[in-house]
Amino acid sequence: MKEVRFRLFIIALIVLGGLWALYPTYQDYQNTKELKEIVAAAEDSIKKANPKITERELQDNINRIEDNFLVGNESVREARDKRIKLGLDLQGGMYLVLEVNTTKLLEKLAKQPDEVYNKLLAEADAEARQGSENVFSILARKLQENNIRLSRYFGNITQEDSEIISEIEEQESDAVSRAMEIIRNRVDQYGVSEPIIQKQGSRRVVVQLPGVSKEEEAKRLLQGRALLEFKLVKDPEFAFPVVDMINQTLLSKDSTKNIADSLLANLPEDQQIKAIQEKYPFFFYTGIDRRNGIADGLVLERNKEIVENLLKKPEVQKVIPENVEFVFSAKADRKGAEGQSAYTLYLVNKAPELTGGVVVDAQATRDPGTGEPVVSMQMNAEGALEWARITGANVQKRCAVILDGKVYTAPVINEKIPSGSSQISGSDSFEEAKLLQIVLKAGALPAPVDIIEERTVGPSLGEDSIRSGLNASWIGFLLIAIFMIFYYKLSGAVADISLIFNVIF
Known about the structure:
The chain has helices spanning 2-49, 55-72, 74-82, 88-91, 102-109, 115-130, 135-145, 161-190, 215-223, 236-250, 261-264, 269-279, 281-286, 304-312, 314-319, 381-393, 430-442, 463-488, 490-504, and strands at residues 93-100, 196-200, 204-210, 228-232, 297-300, 324-328, 334-335, 341-349, 354-355, 359-366, 373-379, 399-403, 406-409, 421-424, 449-457. By secondary structure, it is α+β, with helices and mostly antiparallel strands. The strands form four sheets. The protein has a four-stranded antiparallel sheet with strand order 2-3-1-15. A four-stranded antiparallel sheet has the order 9-4-12-13.
């Protein structure tokens, strides 16, 4: 009898353990249901209060409400982390084919690349895209055809071409393997269940992400190189002469540059705008106004590509000092004329004061003062020492925090920071800050990855099919259970109980 009681106790304990493990899934289901009701009510309320609100502004408000609900309640976060996660067939997701850009890797590995090297590398890249041969093999062949030893750009002068080819091909292959590992780490930290990450060919990676339906979210997670740089923003005293030189360079021969400013006001509005655009082309598109004493540009979203093309012009490149560069903000988070979205354009030092290699931890949190999502970073001992030196030497100057070539924030250094801590602000939502945290913690990709194929995959089993399947399972089980008890009596009842335990376990 004691042995039976012990067995029953063990069975009860395991059943309770199974139910305890299932509870977060039930809790998350209830939380999701509640969130949908809150969002629906809030959406109606916002639309009634502001009928002219744009879709983007409405979505920003909805994102903040979702953030507050998902992040502000610890039990909600825990339930979401511990729930049973569905696969691609049940909830859909993203299917992507990535290609490691080994051309960029070769740009980085080359020592003192010149015009000849850049030309041959571009040709090798174009040829590799048409066939299956890797970029470096083609480049090596082209260099040899031009009687150029590989030691001119790789390795050292004592090495033979065959030895250099072996080393670079190994690094090329290693870059793809490292990229796969970093992508896997990012996906694991993001919490995607049952992802599929496979190598395809020599430099392609296939990634399937169940439950990730937002294209931009997936791209940020997988493509972000995590190249973090801290660069000083140039003072107006330095920036304005550079901007003046660019503007003078862009003036065309048939422009209205000789029109006096006093005469511009007498022109009709459309002619006045055209005259200003011709006389001050760079000022016109970048919104830089010397009168306010700030050298940051305000570039309307529709003009961003125009400004990028202006800055790429060879004649403009010649007048920009070699030690500085123009960098855009990560988002169009400012307002220009008539409330249009605009980017900020910064002039910063080209050489970083510090890079992200010293960051050992990153954590997405909310700023206690503003409530805005931020990513707090902690540096190692070496980084902390260097950061203290940099901040101490540049008090009252601005330092841009740049991730993958985009400025996330450019705060004023108010005092020396000895702790080795810093923050990245500018995220629209906590989920976006969380993505930044994952990308920084997982490490930097050895080379950029390009998405060559992407598609949103719908669940192969739709919600109606899943619901019908569940109903059929319960009805079928009840009918069979009743038959088993009726026909087999006690043995049938035991079999039914065993089946219930199997489902729970």
